């Protein structure tokens, strides 16, 4: 499996908290999908991976139900956020309506204007065209990603030029992904031959993604490589 699953994402978020926000007040929001399934299990796994040596102020968990609306979420934030300390809000949901509401709530109210708030969310938040990018920048929104294209990279520029010549169009994210998968696995097969399966367990950064192939409990292999992106100084880095 080339696309990392929830385990890799949980691990990356935990590493991010341990590294960048060891002294923060952590607020986890569990929002159920249309089938009523939330992220309770993933949140529990994430908390279990947090560094016990850190100086985390406190950990709060809230379940937000869709029909409760903005007012309920607003009251939760008033209860959960603390003054004079960095507040880190984390949600693993990919529901774009909820993510949009959450950003609006975090940027509203006099209390939150004077409170340090950061946000870790799904990268799907970047697909919400109605969100004010100033809000994302103020919150320094941080996301886990399966892929990220650095258009300043020389190898990326070369790939785009070659793709344009071959197909007379711009490469999509699937073109980048297909190229990375082909170059990684075929390269390993060419160099390792019969020992191919032993050679793939080496962390490798590619053009738009990376690979850290590890065996799973079911007998297969899954990619554990995740990228971390953040909105910083009005750029996605």
Summarize the structure in words.
The chain is of the alpha/beta class and 237 residues long. It is built from 9 helices and 11 strands. The strands form 3 sheets. It has a 7-stranded mixed sheet with strand order 2-1-3-4-5-10-11. Strand 8 and strand 9 form a beta hairpin. Helix 1 crosses helix 2 (40-48). It starts with 5 loop residues before the first helix and ends with a strand. The mean pLDDT is 88.
From the alpha-carbon coordinates, what is the Rg to the nearest angstrom? 20 Å
Shape: globular
Helicity level, as a percent range?
40-55%
Summed over residues and divided by their number, the pLDDT gives a mean of 88
Q: What's the count of strands?
A: 11
How far is it from the N-terminal to the C-terminal residue, by CA?
26 Å
Assess the beta-strand content as a share of residues: 15-25%
User: Low-confidence parts lasting 5 or more residues at pLDDT below 50?
Assistant: none
Concise account of the structure shown:
This protein has helices at 6-20, 40-48, 69-80, 96-106, 110-113, 133-138, 154-167, 173-192, 196-199, and strands spanning 25-30, 58-63, 87-91, 117-122, 142-145, 204-205, 210-211, 213-215, 221-223, 227-232, 235-236. It is α/β, with parallel strands linked by helices and 237 residues long.
